[in-house]
Amino acid sequence: MRQAVVAPTFNELDNIEWFMRRVRDELPAAHLFVLDDNSPDGTGAVADRVAAEVGNATVVHRAGKEGLGSAYRHGFEIARSGGFDVIVTMDVDRSHDPVVLPAMIAAVDAGADVVIGSRYVPGGGTANWSAHRRLLSAWGNRYTGWVLNMRVRDCTSAYRAYRAHALEVIDPSTTRADGYAFLTELTRRAARNGMSIVEVPITFVDRQYGTSKMSWRIIVESMLLVTGWGVRDVIRRLWARMRRSPRSTDAPPADAS
Ligand SMILES: Nc1nc2c(ncn2[C@@H]2O[C@H](COP(=O)(O)OP(=O)(O)OP(=O)(O)O)[C@@H](O)[C@H]2O)c(=O)[nH]1
Ligand SMILES: [Mg+2]
Hints:
Blueprint: E1 3-9, H1 16-26, E2 31-36, H2 43-54, E3 57-61, H3 68-81, E4 86-89, H4 101-109, E5 114-118, E6 125-127, H5 131-147, E7 160-163, H6 164-170, H7 180-192, E8 197-201, E9 203-205, H8 216-244
Parallel strand pairs: 1-2, 1-4, 2-3, 5-8, 6-9
Antiparallel strand pairs: 4-7, 5-7
This protein binds guanosine-5'-triphosphate (GTP) and magnesium ion (MG).
Magnesium ion binds at residues 91, 93, 95, 207.
């Protein structure tokens, strides 16, 4: 299977070289795509140098910071036109340990459409997170799974492997969200299309170098969108039930006059 790894970066100077070399160690045959949003700290130039050293890597230099969702949509499009069979997405900040990569690829090989590196299945977890971040993420994920009626435990993990065909059906190009909601939307589309979603346990390590781009705006965007989708789903289900019910009819009233 031809593998691509898509990795967006913004100000990851302390992490980018480690990341590219570790991914190359774990997946020697994968093509690595780094999408850098013109990081002011010079991440893009370091990525260019390391790409030349490790080979089979492309650095896409984007004009400016446009958000994670935008970078992923761009990366997916490039991977799609490159004819890859499996597309992996990862954070560059050492939160996603490349050691799990072979297990994720193996799960796709074994038949999964979407593989999620999951903090909330047995064997998974978070290291060195503050209590408030742990609670926020754990409850955010529970709420999302419940509202959207999905069995997935970790809807917002960005550590994933997609079968190329699954990504065609999910069609990320028609999503608009940028933060966690973007990841939730892809998960939701996979679940609604009856895809096989497999969660592989990971230990998520909080970033130690560089600065966080997490913000309240991203969290609020995510919660509002998830709630909106959930309400829409409930209305759709009720509507479908009403149309199926023997007492309801689509025919107009016999005589309205
Ligand atoms: N190209 C691009 N990459 C981004 C952008 N924002 C974040 N990233 C990258 O996306 C990945 C995840 O972003 P993080 O800042 O780690 O987000 P997070 O994991 O939710 O939060 P922290 O780990 O607390 O920083 C990292 O590799 C970032 O460098 C962006 O606007 N453009
Ligand atoms: Mg991070």
